[in-house]
Design a protein that fits this description.
There is one protein chain. The protein is of the alpha/beta class. Helices cover 40% and strands 21% of the residues. The protein contains eleven helices and seven strands. The chain has a seven-stranded mixed beta sheet with strand order 3-2-1-4-5-7-6, sandwiched between helices. α1 packs across α3 and α2 runs antiparallel to α5. Bound molecules: S-adenosyl-L-homocysteine (SAH). The site of S-adenosyl-L-homocysteine has 18 residues, from β2 and α7.
Protein backbone atom coordinates (compact mmCIF):
# COMPACT_ATOMS: atom_id res chain seq x y z
CA UNK A 1 0.00 0.00 0.00
CA UNK A 2 1.43 3.46 -0.89
CA UNK A 3 2.52 5.69 1.98
CA UNK A 4 0.14 8.52 2.81
CA UNK A 5 1.40 11.80 1.37
CA UNK A 6 2.43 14.40 3.93
CA UNK A 7 -0.34 16.97 4.18
CA UNK A 8 2.01 19.69 5.34
CA UNK A 9 5.03 19.86 3.03
CA UNK A 10 5.80 23.45 4.02
CA UNK A 11 7.92 24.20 7.05
CA UNK A 12 6.72 27.34 8.79
CA UNK A 13 9.45 27.56 11.44
CA UNK A 14 11.70 29.99 9.66
CA UNK A 15 9.19 32.31 8.05
CA UNK A 16 9.66 35.40 10.17
CA UNK A 17 13.48 35.44 10.14
CA UNK A 18 13.40 34.78 6.39
CA UNK A 19 10.98 37.64 5.75
CA UNK A 20 12.85 40.00 8.08
CA UNK A 21 16.17 39.28 6.38
CA UNK A 22 14.78 39.87 2.89
CA UNK A 23 13.00 43.03 4.02
CA UNK A 24 16.16 44.38 5.67
CA UNK A 25 18.13 43.73 2.48
CA UNK A 26 15.61 45.93 0.68
CA UNK A 27 15.84 48.61 3.39
CA UNK A 28 12.45 47.89 4.94
CA UNK A 29 11.93 47.23 8.63
CA UNK A 30 8.98 45.30 10.01
CA UNK A 31 7.88 45.35 13.64
CA UNK A 32 7.53 42.02 15.44
CA UNK A 33 3.75 42.34 15.21
CA UNK A 34 3.89 43.05 11.47
CA UNK A 35 6.15 40.04 10.87
CA UNK A 36 3.78 37.87 12.92
CA UNK A 37 0.75 39.06 10.97
CA UNK A 38 2.56 38.45 7.66
CA UNK A 39 3.34 34.92 8.81
CA UNK A 40 -0.26 34.18 9.75
CA UNK A 41 -1.37 35.58 6.40
CA UNK A 42 1.24 33.57 4.45
CA UNK A 43 0.16 30.45 6.32
CA UNK A 44 -3.49 31.06 5.45
CA UNK A 45 -2.63 31.63 1.76
CA UNK A 46 -0.52 28.49 1.57
CA UNK A 47 -3.17 26.38 3.31
CA UNK A 48 -5.97 27.66 1.14
CA UNK A 49 -3.91 27.18 -2.00
CA UNK A 50 -4.13 23.50 -1.39
CA UNK A 51 -7.90 23.65 -1.40
CA UNK A 52 -8.36 25.91 -4.40
CA UNK A 53 -6.05 27.89 -6.53
CA UNK A 54 -5.89 31.32 -4.89
CA UNK A 55 -2.46 32.22 -6.22
CA UNK A 56 -0.06 30.42 -8.50
CA UNK A 57 2.51 29.88 -5.75
CA UNK A 58 2.35 28.00 -2.53
CA UNK A 59 5.93 27.89 -1.35
CA UNK A 60 6.34 30.08 1.71
CA UNK A 61 9.58 31.57 0.41
CA UNK A 62 7.81 32.65 -2.76
CA UNK A 63 4.86 34.01 -0.80
CA UNK A 64 7.26 36.05 1.35
CA UNK A 65 9.24 37.43 -1.58
CA UNK A 66 6.93 37.60 -4.59
CA UNK A 67 3.65 38.33 -2.83
CA UNK A 68 4.25 40.01 0.51
CA UNK A 69 7.41 42.00 -0.17
CA UNK A 70 6.29 42.82 -3.69
CA UNK A 71 3.17 44.38 -2.15
CA UNK A 72 4.99 46.58 0.36
CA UNK A 73 8.50 47.43 -0.87
CA UNK A 74 7.44 50.68 -2.57
CA UNK A 75 5.42 51.96 0.39
CA UNK A 76 8.21 53.93 2.08
CA UNK A 77 8.81 55.65 -1.24
CA UNK A 78 5.16 56.69 -1.34
CA UNK A 79 4.96 58.06 2.19
CA UNK A 80 5.02 61.76 1.24
CA UNK A 81 2.32 61.54 -1.42
CA UNK A 82 0.16 59.45 0.85
CA UNK A 83 0.54 61.84 3.79
CA UNK A 84 -0.59 64.65 1.51
CA UNK A 85 -3.78 62.69 0.81
CA UNK A 86 -4.54 62.08 4.49
CA UNK A 87 -8.00 63.49 5.27
CA UNK A 88 -8.38 65.29 8.60
CA UNK A 89 -11.61 63.75 9.81
CA UNK A 90 -11.52 60.12 8.74
CA UNK A 91 -9.01 57.37 8.00
CA UNK A 92 -7.33 57.22 4.62
CA UNK A 93 -9.30 54.81 2.41
CA UNK A 94 -7.85 52.24 0.03
CA UNK A 95 -9.68 49.88 -2.35
CA UNK A 96 -7.83 46.86 -3.74
CA UNK A 97 -9.62 45.76 -6.93
CA UNK A 98 -9.28 42.14 -8.16
CA UNK A 99 -7.52 41.36 -4.91
CA UNK A 100 -7.64 37.54 -5.28
CA UNK A 101 -6.10 36.22 -2.07
CA UNK A 102 -5.71 39.76 -0.69
CA UNK A 103 -2.81 41.18 -2.68
CA UNK A 104 -1.54 43.80 -2.39
CA UNK A 105 -4.23 45.05 0.04
CA UNK A 106 -3.61 42.86 3.08
CA UNK A 107 0.17 43.38 3.27
CA UNK A 108 -0.41 47.13 2.77
CA UNK A 109 -2.90 47.15 5.66
CA UNK A 110 -0.40 45.33 7.89
CA UNK A 111 2.18 48.04 7.13
CA UNK A 112 -0.33 50.92 7.35
CA UNK A 113 -2.81 49.70 9.98
CA UNK A 114 -4.69 53.01 10.14
CA UNK A 115 -6.09 52.88 6.61
CA UNK A 116 -9.67 51.78 5.91
CA UNK A 117 -9.28 48.82 3.56
CA UNK A 118 -11.83 47.56 1.03
CA UNK A 119 -10.91 44.36 -0.80
CA UNK A 120 -12.91 43.62 -3.95
CA UNK A 121 -13.05 40.45 -5.99
CA UNK A 122 -15.47 38.92 -8.47
CA UNK A 123 -15.18 35.50 -6.87
CA UNK A 124 -17.43 34.73 -3.91
CA UNK A 125 -15.17 31.94 -2.63
CA UNK A 126 -12.20 34.29 -2.55
CA UNK A 127 -14.26 36.86 -0.67
CA UNK A 128 -15.18 34.22 1.91
CA UNK A 129 -11.50 33.44 2.40
CA UNK A 130 -10.66 37.15 2.68
CA UNK A 131 -13.35 37.83 5.27
CA UNK A 132 -12.03 34.98 7.38
CA UNK A 133 -8.41 36.04 7.06
CA UNK A 134 -9.15 39.68 7.98
CA UNK A 135 -10.77 38.43 11.14
CA UNK A 136 -7.94 36.01 11.96
CA UNK A 137 -5.42 38.84 11.57
CA UNK A 138 -7.48 41.06 13.85
CA UNK A 139 -7.59 43.86 11.27
CA UNK A 140 -10.25 46.47 11.92
CA UNK A 141 -11.53 49.00 9.35
CA UNK A 142 -11.17 46.26 6.75
CA UNK A 143 -13.83 44.51 4.64
CA UNK A 144 -14.07 42.22 1.63
CA UNK A 145 -16.75 42.74 -1.04
CA UNK A 146 -17.83 40.49 -3.88
CA UNK A 147 -18.45 42.19 -7.21
CA UNK A 148 -16.94 43.27 -10.48
CA UNK A 149 -14.82 46.40 -10.31
CA UNK A 150 -16.54 47.89 -13.37
CA UNK A 151 -20.03 47.37 -11.87
CA UNK A 152 -19.34 48.57 -8.33
CA UNK A 153 -17.61 51.65 -9.80
CA UNK A 154 -21.09 52.95 -10.71
CA UNK A 155 -22.42 52.62 -7.16
CA UNK A 156 -22.71 55.89 -5.24
CA UNK A 157 -21.08 54.21 -2.25
CA UNK A 158 -17.87 53.56 -4.21
CA UNK A 159 -17.70 56.05 -7.09
CA UNK A 160 -15.35 59.01 -6.42
CA UNK A 161 -14.95 57.81 -2.82
CA UNK A 162 -11.42 56.47 -2.26
CA UNK A 163 -8.13 58.22 -1.52
CA UNK A 164 -6.14 55.28 -2.90
CA UNK A 165 -6.80 52.34 -5.20
CA UNK A 166 -4.31 49.48 -5.55
CA UNK A 167 -4.35 46.89 -8.34
CA UNK A 168 -2.04 43.98 -9.00
CA UNK A 169 -2.37 41.40 -11.75
CA UNK A 170 -5.92 42.29 -12.78
CA UNK A 171 -5.54 43.54 -16.34
CA UNK A 172 -3.37 45.44 -18.78
CA UNK A 173 -2.81 49.10 -18.04
CA UNK A 174 -5.53 50.74 -20.20
CA UNK A 175 -8.15 48.29 -18.88
CA UNK A 176 -7.21 48.64 -15.23
CA UNK A 177 -7.27 52.43 -15.57
CA UNK A 178 -10.90 52.27 -16.69
CA UNK A 179 -11.75 49.94 -13.77
CA UNK A 180 -9.88 51.94 -11.14
CA UNK A 181 -9.97 55.67 -11.82
CA UNK A 182 -13.75 56.05 -11.22
CA UNK A 183 -13.31 54.77 -7.62
CA UNK A 184 -10.88 57.56 -6.76
CA UNK A 185 -11.66 60.99 -5.43
CA UNK A 186 -10.28 63.81 -7.56
CA UNK A 187 -6.66 64.16 -6.46
CA UNK A 188 -6.56 60.52 -5.34
CA UNK A 189 -3.85 58.10 -6.33
CA UNK A 190 -3.88 54.74 -8.09
CA UNK A 191 -1.03 52.34 -7.30
CA UNK A 192 -0.71 49.93 -10.23
CA UNK A 193 1.60 46.97 -9.55
CA UNK A 194 3.15 45.96 -12.85
CA UNK A 195 5.73 43.56 -14.26
CA UNK A 196 8.59 43.97 -16.72
CA UNK A 197 6.21 44.51 -19.67
CA UNK A 198 4.98 47.79 -18.24
CA UNK A 199 6.84 50.27 -20.47
CA UNK A 200 5.05 48.87 -23.56
CA UNK A 201 1.66 48.95 -21.79
CA UNK A 202 2.21 52.61 -20.98
CA UNK A 203 2.50 53.44 -24.69
CA UNK A 204 -0.98 51.98 -25.22
CA UNK A 205 -2.56 53.96 -22.38
CA UNK A 206 -2.25 57.57 -23.56
CA UNK A 207 -5.83 57.79 -24.78
CA UNK A 208 -7.21 56.08 -21.66
CA UNK A 209 -5.35 58.53 -19.42
CA UNK A 210 -6.73 61.49 -21.36
CA UNK A 211 -10.35 60.25 -21.43
CA UNK A 212 -10.28 59.31 -17.75
CA UNK A 213 -8.59 62.59 -16.77
CA UNK A 214 -5.62 61.02 -15.10
CA UNK A 215 -1.84 61.31 -15.30
CA UNK A 216 1.02 58.91 -14.63
CA UNK A 217 3.18 60.51 -11.95
CA UNK A 218 5.86 58.03 -11.01
CA UNK A 219 7.15 54.65 -12.09
CA UNK A 220 8.90 53.18 -9.06
CA UNK A 221 11.13 50.17 -9.78
CA UNK A 222 10.87 47.42 -7.19
CA UNK A 223 13.77 44.98 -6.74
CA UNK A 224 12.98 41.94 -4.65
CA UNK A 225 16.15 40.71 -2.92
CA UNK A 226 17.45 37.47 -4.40
CA UNK A 227 15.04 37.58 -7.34
CA UNK A 228 15.96 38.73 -10.82
CA UNK A 229 12.46 39.86 -11.79
CA UNK A 230 11.95 43.60 -12.13
CA UNK A 231 8.63 45.01 -10.94
CA UNK A 232 7.12 48.49 -10.96
CA UNK A 233 4.65 50.40 -8.85
CA UNK A 234 3.13 53.03 -11.12
CA UNK A 235 1.34 55.95 -9.51
CA UNK A 236 -1.52 57.58 -11.39
CA UNK A 237 -3.13 60.82 -10.20
CA UNK A 238 -6.81 61.47 -10.82
CA UNK A 239 -7.04 65.05 -12.09
CA UNK A 240 -10.80 65.53 -12.38
CA UNK A 241 -14.19 63.84 -11.94
CA UNK A 242 -14.57 60.80 -14.23
CA UNK A 243 -17.19 61.11 -17.02
CA UNK A 244 -20.29 59.01 -16.12
CA UNK A 245 -19.92 56.64 -19.05
CA UNK A 246 -16.78 55.00 -17.58
CA UNK A 247 -16.28 52.17 -16.85
CA UNK A 248 -18.19 50.97 -19.90
CA UNK A 249 -20.47 47.90 -19.46
CA UNK A 250 -20.46 44.38 -20.93
CA UNK A 251 -16.78 43.63 -20.62
CA UNK A 252 -15.77 46.48 -22.95
CA UNK A 253 -12.84 47.71 -20.80
CA UNK A 254 -11.22 44.33 -21.38
CA UNK A 255 -12.48 43.50 -24.90
CA UNK A 256 -11.99 46.95 -26.37
CA UNK A 257 -9.60 48.99 -24.18
CA UNK A 258 -9.79 52.78 -24.47
N1 LIG B 1 -4.41 40.88 -7.04
C1 LIG B 1 -4.17 39.47 -6.83
C2 LIG B 1 -4.99 38.58 -7.76
C3 LIG B 1 -4.74 38.75 -9.23
S1 LIG B 1 -5.65 37.60 -10.21
C4 LIG B 1 -2.69 39.16 -6.92
O1 LIG B 1 -1.94 40.03 -7.33
O2 LIG B 1 -2.28 38.04 -6.58
C5 LIG B 1 -7.06 38.57 -10.66
C6 LIG B 1 -8.20 38.50 -9.66
O3 LIG B 1 -9.15 39.48 -10.07
C7 LIG B 1 -8.91 37.18 -9.56
O4 LIG B 1 -9.04 36.84 -8.20
C8 LIG B 1 -10.29 37.43 -10.19
O5 LIG B 1 -11.33 36.75 -9.50
C9 LIG B 1 -10.44 38.93 -10.01
N2 LIG B 1 -11.17 39.63 -11.08
C10 LIG B 1 -11.03 39.49 -12.43
N3 LIG B 1 -11.77 40.39 -13.07
C11 LIG B 1 -12.40 41.14 -12.11
C12 LIG B 1 -13.30 42.23 -12.16
N4 LIG B 1 -13.70 42.75 -13.33
N5 LIG B 1 -13.72 42.75 -10.99
C13 LIG B 1 -13.31 42.24 -9.80
N6 LIG B 1 -12.46 41.19 -9.70
C14 LIG B 1 -12.01 40.65 -10.84
Amino acid sequence: MPMAKSVSPVNFDGFQPYLQTLAAEAGLSLSVRQAQQMEVYAHALAETNRKFNLTAMDQLEDIAALHILDSVLALDDLATEVEDLQPRTRPLSLADLGTGGGLPGIPIKVMWPDIALTLVDGSQKKVRFLTEVLETLGLSHARALQGRAEDLAHWRTHREQYDLVAIRGLARFPTLLEYAVPWLQTGGLLLAYKGPGFPAELQDARQALRLLRARVERVIPVHIPGRSVIRFVVTVRKLDVTPRRYPRPQGLPRKDPL
